[in-house]
């Protein structure tokens, strides 16, 4: 019966209208639930990660309250999302009821007037149920799909961040490297308002060891980051062996430049795996040789299991000095022509520092090295010193030359601090 059929189907547009108004609200609610979930988890992870600082600063109660607020917010947004996800089911059920009511009322009248057989009406009732059953399950699946899409979108947002540093299609794979470095009028900033490096030019010949010194925030680490091509300069160029870094493949830069960072990151795993992190082809003998050279073998041998001693995440079960020595061994095993040490000896006690200083001298032998150092002891051993101030290269020369110029470096040295970190900023200006 066409008329009764059309009447029954008149319910369907209502469903579409409901969906039309539901979708934006539901998506926003699902997104918000995901966001509050990340916020709560992020706060929890940060507090656990920094538990010592939290204890030292007696921040336990405040952090607990902050986390409670976030957890409450998370609960509320999840409840709202759950309501919106479920609200479709009663609506579909209600509409099914409506369709059946139409059949009973309209069809019933037709049966009484003899226009429709009773059997047809009963069949209609069953058909309506069978028709709406799949719609009901589709509705449930549809909410789940919307939820999944919101989660997927957040992942895609991360995946879609454009890569700023990429290989050119015809990038050169530098096979042999002499280790010459040059910075030519390099300028750089992270955010347009704050210029970090301004027209910095210097060059380093193969095998030369230079120190970069300067007050905190003067752009030393940024210089190192540009040399490893973590970023491209905004103007000017950075070259290795006369090749602009942008024309080289990133893999080949990695094969020739290694960096030791101030707080070396160690991974969960054995000491052996950590030392040969960049060079998985090296064997146990190579690893032990490197560890002996940087004077790390003794402490490793004393650990239970020796080289198979398993480190916690971030190397948490070693002292900072020990981690530093392992990172030197790692750089030695990587065996690159160019080595960048960023503040490698800061924050280490003077006994470890002497040990590390010895390790450094061995590590740097025969390589081009850029040492970003705060300690005068480290700086004096270098062939040449570059002095950065507010992103500009202000002085350049040997220790004696710079003392003779009697500029910033001489002033910093005369203050007789063991480290440039201790120099008050009034002395720099
Ligand atoms: N990832 C970043 N995003 C935005 N600004 C940054 C970033 N890293 C550094 N900066 C800014 O760039 C400037 C130079 O930082 P850089 O880390 O190069 O200094 P630095 O000379 O290594 O200092 P320090 O001696 O304290 O290590 C600083 O003013 C800093 O605020
Ligand atoms: Mg730095």
Descriptive account of the structure:
By secondary structure, the chain is an alpha/beta fold. It folds into 2 domains: 2-159, ABC transporter transmembrane region fold; 181-428, 3-Layer(aba) Sandwich (Rossmann fold). 55% of the residues lie in helices and 15% in strands. The protein has 17 helices and 12 strands. A 6-stranded mixed β-sheet has the order 6-9-10-3-11-12, with helices on both faces. It has a 4-stranded antiparallel β-sheet with strand order 2-1-4-5. α2 packs antiparallel against α5 (88-112), α2 runs parallel beside α6 (118-159) and α5 (88-112) packs antiparallel against α6. The N and C termini lie far apart (94 Å). The model has no long low-confidence stretch (mean pLDDT 88). The structure holds adenosine-5'-triphosphate and magnesium ion. Magnesium ion binds next to α7.
Can you list the strand order of the major beta sheet? 6-9-10-3-11-12
Distance between the termini: 94 Å
**CATH first level of the largest domain: which class?**
Alpha Beta
What low-confidence regions span 5 or more consecutive residues with pLDDT below 50?
none
